[in-house]
Amino acid sequence: MFRRILQRVDFWLIWVTVVLCGASGAGAHSCHEVKTAFQLRQIGSLKWVPEAPGTDGELQICKHPGPSCCTRKMEESYQAAVRRETLQNIRSYSFELKYLIVGHSSAFQDTFQSLLSFTLNLTSALFDSAYEPLSQDARPLVADLFSVLSLFLGGDGNTSMEHSVHRFYDDLFPLVYRRLVNPGLASAPPSSEHSECLRKTRQDVNPFGPHPRALAEGLTRALSTGRALSRALMMGAEVLNATERAGLARECGRALVRMQYCPHCRGLTLIRPCGGLCLNVMRGCLVGLSELDGPWRHYVALLQELTGALAGGHDLELSLLGIRNHINDAILHAQLHGPRISAIVDKVCGPLTDTPSVTSLRPTLEVMTSVTTSPTSVASTPSPAEVTLGRLSHTRRSLPLKPSKIDKPRSLKKISREFMGYIQRYRSFFSALPETLCESEMVGEDFTCWSGEDVVESYVGRVVGNGLQAQKNNPEIKVRSIDPILVAARDKLEQFKQEMQGQMGWATEWGAWVETGSGTRGEASGECDDEDGCQGSGEEDFTDENERVDVATAGVPLGKSPGAREPPHQVPTIQPPPQVAVKAAGHTPTHHPAITITLITLLFALGLP
C-alpha cells in the first residue's frame, strides 16, 4: 500500500518537473514577449524582431555576451522611438506652462482692449457734448491716439507714447484755434499752409499749457507696467516654443536606448531603470534646458513683480480714464489764453484772413460784474455728462458702488492675482524637469532595477547634478555641446532681464527676491479690497475727497487746476480780464478721478457697457 502511494507521488513530481522545464526552455528560446512589446509601443516593423534569441555582431548599443532578441534594425527603431517618446513627454509637461502664459496673455490683452474701447468712447463723448464744432474732425484724431495706446500696451517696440501724444495735440491745435479760440474764422476756408504752420509751431506757441506733457508722462509711466507685462508674456511664449523645437543629441538617444530598451534584448520587458541611472541620463539629455534655469527664475520673478504692480493699484485704469480730463483741461487752457495765442500765431504764421473780426473768447461768454457771483446767476444748460455726474453725487450712498459678485467681469486686478498664484509654481520648471520625467512610470520601485548593464538591487554609480559643468562627471552620457536653439533662448532671456531691470528700475531688488521666491513689492496677492467684496473700504474717503476738492478749487478760474504753473514764455500783459467768466456751453469742468471711477463702476453694475 505504502509503495503504491510513493510510486504515484514520484510520478506526479516527475510530470510537474518535465512540464516546468519544458515551459522554461520554451521561454528561454523565444522572443515572443519582446515582439509583443515592440508591437504595442509601435516602435517599428515586426519583421525586424527575431523569433528566437540569436547573435548579431552589428549591435552597437545593446551589446552583451550571449544570445539577444535585438538586431541592428531594432536598435535604429528603438533610437527613433525613444527620441519621439522623450520629446513627447517633455512637451506634455511644458504644455500646461505654455497654456498658462499664452492664455493669460490673451486675457490681459482682452482686458486692455476693453479699457481702451471704453475710454475711447468716453473721450469721444467729450467732443460730442462739450465741443460740438470739433466733434466730427476730432474723432479720427482720438481714434488714432487710442490706436497707438493699443500698440503700446501690446508691447510694440516702435511706439513712442510721448511722440504720439504730442502729435495728437499738434493735429488738434488747428481745429481749436479756428473754431474755439477764433470762432469767427470757422466760416473761412481753411488754408493747408496755415494749418501746417499751426501744427509745426504748436509746441512753441504752447496753446495747451502743461497738459500735453502731463498726459504724455502720465500715460508712459502708468502704462509701462502693462506694456512690460505684454512683452514679458510674449518672451515666455517664445522661449517655450524654442524648447519644443530643440532636439536631442545623438549621445542622448543612445543613452536613452540603453536605459529603456536594452533590457528587452535579454527578454526583460518589465524591468524598469534605476532612479540614479534615469537622473544621470535625463540630466545629460536635458542639459540645454537646465541651462535656462537661472534666467527662467529671474523671468518668473519679473512676471510676479509686474502682475503684483497691476494687482496692487489702479494706475493704469485711472491714467486711461484721465485722458478725457487732460484733453478738456488743455482745450480750456487754450480758450482762456486766446488773445495771447492769437497774437503769437499772427506773428509766426500770419493771419488766416483779413475779413472776419477775431475775438479772443467764444460768443457764448458772458461778462460778469464779479467773479464771486452766485452759482444761479451763471447757471446754464448742463451737458449730459454733468447730468449723469450730478445724479451720481446725490445717489452714491443709496446705489451700490461695487458690482455684484454674481457674473462680475474679470478685472485686471483679479487676472493679475490669478496669474501670480499660478506662475510661482513654475520657478524651477527647467531644473526639476529631469526629476519630473524620472518620477513618472519610467522608474521602477521594485527590489531590483536596470542599471544600464544588468539587473541590480540599487544603482551604484555617481549621480550628478544639473547644468553643463556637472555633466563632466556624468558616467552615463558624454555632453559635448548645447543645442544652439536653447543657447539663443537663454541669451534672449538674459538680455530681456537686463532690459527690464533698466527700464523698471528693479535691479537692486531682484537678487534676494529671486532666491526667496516669495512676495512682491505690492504684496497685493493676499489683500482684500472692494473688488473682493470687502465692505466699508472707501465710502467715507470718497466724500471727504470731494469736499477737499471743492474747497481747493474755490476761486480758481474755470479750466485751471490749482497750483498749475503757467507756461514759461506766456505774455502776462495779454491775460484775460479777471472779471470774465466762461459760460458752461463751451466746456465741461474737470472732475476728480474718484467721480469717474464711481461712474465706471456703476455702469458695470448696471450692465451698460
TrEMBL record:
Keywords: Cell membrane, Glycoprotein, GPI-anchor, Heparan sulfate, Lipoprotein, Membrane, Proteoglycan, Signal
Stretches with biased composition (Acidic residues): 526-544
Native source species: Oncorhynchus kisutch
Stated family: Belongs to the glypican family.
Main location group: membrane
Purpose: Cell surface proteoglycan.
Transmembrane helix keyword on record: no
Keyword hit for Signal: yes
Recorded GO CC terms: cell surface; extracellular region; plasma membrane; side of membrane
Name recorded for this polypeptide: Glypican 5b
Signal peptide limits: 1-28
Topology of this chain in the membrane: Lipid-anchor; GPI-anchor
Location of this chain's protein in the cell: Cell membrane
